[in-house]
Amino acid sequence: MSTTDGTKVPRNSTALHWSRVGVMPSILANLRLVVTLTVLGGLAGLVVSAVQPERYVAEARLFLSSSSPFDGIGGSDYINDPDRYLMNQAELLGSEPVLAAAAERPGVGTDAQGLEEVLTIAPGRDVDLITVSAEGATGEQAAARANAVASAFRAFADDKVDAQTQRLLQFTPNALARRQVLRRAAAYGDGVAVLESATPPDESSTQTPMNVALGLLVGAALGAAAAAARGSRRPRTRTPAGGREPREPTPSRAATGEDRAGPLVGNNGWPQVEVASGRAPGSPS
Fold this sequence. Notes:
The protein has 285 residues and is of the alpha+beta class.
């Protein structure tokens, strides 16, 4: 550290520095402001929840019967990867052909694009489960949408297996091999073992607690920022680095005309002080 004239100052010296105002003292000093903004944030969350339209969510669950794609002839070079197969089936559930077919079913009330916006498809932790969640303005509409997607997926998968079976039969002249292809197709089906249809939910999924919590958090953050801004605008005082008030500089003995032996005196015993006349007061002329 150095002064303006280039003189170095030790770190442990009592050089003056600007005192800083901490955040916590500012918050405590403006506690009423922080509490007010926090409460207002919570009220804003309640208002947002009140003006939001009610939404209902229904779930349908599909338990798959296989962990690999359909193989009509057996011995195909399919990679047996259950996790990958589950992800592929989940992607197929949300594909455009499936959603377009689901949108045509009764009770859905939207097209494929609108259905995609209110749909959530989640593979479960188990390797044979996929959950289809759909939102709706009513509980009945939400359930109809989830069930429509699940049913459209099953129909699409069944048609896919049938088409693959017909192609295999065209290139399989042997009667025994043809019967094996048909048996495999019948056993595989649409690849779904069980479908748990969605039921209309009794209560809406309005996220009032989350909105209120988010409002409280935002209000508290704004209050803390406002309190810190107020504290930073307060006038700062210059204090020594050690926290003590600076002492007034004492004049040196050379400046006052004194030395270690005391004040300078003349031959006559009077203190030698310079005045306008050049003589000490009371000295003989």
